[in-house]
């Protein structure tokens, strides 16, 4: 069906959601193509989740209405007349597609978050009832009363133009009487829908969950006729037995209830709850939006099992323990093998699935008291081997010379479990110890006036208040992670240069601080916790002294802003350190830094997955654009992804992922384009597959400043 070319969105505010539903019949004569309703609770859920919430018309219930047509003036006139007839408290006609998309995103995000935003998990057992649009307001009021009578809670929203209401409800399915309470509610809800002349399944079909409710909608004779037709067409009852015809009781085969006493639910209750956050929305298998990361492995393979939803389904079955048994089952290994721990789902999945953390937990449990793969010992403990190498004078240079010979490089790859097609990175002496600005945290803290430590709270990545003194912007500490410190490809001097140009006094942290990233990605979580606690002893005093810390490698910076909060939930220092850890671009933007001109340059920027998903690439993009560059921000993952892209068995898939976004963007931009990537993995993938060197964000800007040493 051809979509009319011109469209407008009307945002209408009402005193409450039922009152918004009452107004639907006044809108239908204006031929809306979409009419979506929701209430204040959905908006609050989206806001609490940290998703952007633009301004809304006055009220506590809203309808977003889309009108389309072949004549732009006619659509605008129709929208104006519809708002006038809507009876709303406040109504806007939105012609800007960007503003309209931001409004519709509230509805999209709210739909996904509705199942995971109550005090207890909410379920889809009563998901898409529908009544005639004229009855929707009355039905919604009765439905809310029914929830209250049963001591249940939900976050309703829906396609108000069709009279369809979605609601996930916190049925206590993990309790002994949960299935009975579920049956009691949905039976009364079905009778309520029937009284309003509606259907228990307005959009998704009856299926196994609601077949036993069909007697509220159809007469015994009609149901008998259904059975006779089924028997003629399927005499052996092969197709969908127990669905629609001769259905099983409502409370049977409820997976959540059956898995409540499974071994994994008992031993890892939080993990069991987390994997059930997936409600099958399927954004991970949808067409990738610009700048989105989720789900790069699905984008490359096209297989459901490689999507976030597919992996979550496998993990649910593992928790249940009926079809899949144990952390080490082959089905789980296959599902997680191509997960690159990109954390794209942590941002882009509406229900907040974080498959990277689930993968780490599975690996941790799978190899508990077992022999690990070689790559877990070599690449998983890489910072230890680097530091050991660095303690021997001249060892990094010697190692580079030895590995330049093919037989030794071949042996090194085999030992490390690295694909033979991967070039090996080169080592360098510690850049933090060689820096003229290097100093210990103790020395830095001694110069500061330490205030009372703030209360622990979840960090907000958008608020930075660096210490400001008269005439300058104060000290800022550069934390040099293991990758930036001892592997070639990161230029510490450029970071010092741009921060100094912005008015800060950059000081390089000489203390040996490791975030445990490689332990996390290989599922060695106790080792990661030990390194995090050691790092907190150094970084927490800096946070308490209000001395901002800047991370260089996005994946390592992300550990402090994300993983550490999960791995050490009871340590009050973690929240303070998380709030005090920033990217270079965040510090430059906070200082209102005016970047040097990049006019005439084309920049292809590949954000590290963790940068895009957790830290946020907005400040970097805004500074590049403010410099006058033509900027292409690559969506998706580069495919290297830490140890993933170098491990045996992953090389070809790693290249396939790069071919989805990164390589086409570089080719389209041409040979004169500048490639920018702060992630060590992203720079390695670029050089390995194109032979071109990617600059860090700081290198690009520093090289255009007159104060840069290499200029």
Describe the structure concisely:
With 711 residues, the protein is an alpha/beta fold.
Tell me about this structure.
45% of the residues lie in helices and 9% in strands. The protein has 36 helices and 15 strands. The strands form 3 sheets. Strands 4-1-3-2-6-7-5 form a 7-stranded antiparallel β-sheet. A 5-stranded parallel β-sheet has the order 8-10-9-11-12, with helices on both faces. It has a 3-stranded parallel β-sheet with strand order 14-13-15, with helices on both faces. 47% of the residues are buried.
Structural class, please?
alpha/beta
The oligomeric state of the chains shown is: single chain
Distance between the termini: 59 Å
- Provide the β-strand percentage band: 5-15%
Helix proportion of residues, in percent?
A: 40-55%
The biggest beta sheet is recorded as: 7 strands, antiparallel
Radius of gyration: 28 Å
Shape: globular
Strand order of the largest sheet: 4-1-3-2-6-7-5
Number of helices: 36
> Which stretches are low in confidence, meaning pLDDT under 50 for 5 or more residues running?
450-463, 465-471
Average pLDDT: 90
Q: How many strands in all?
A: 15
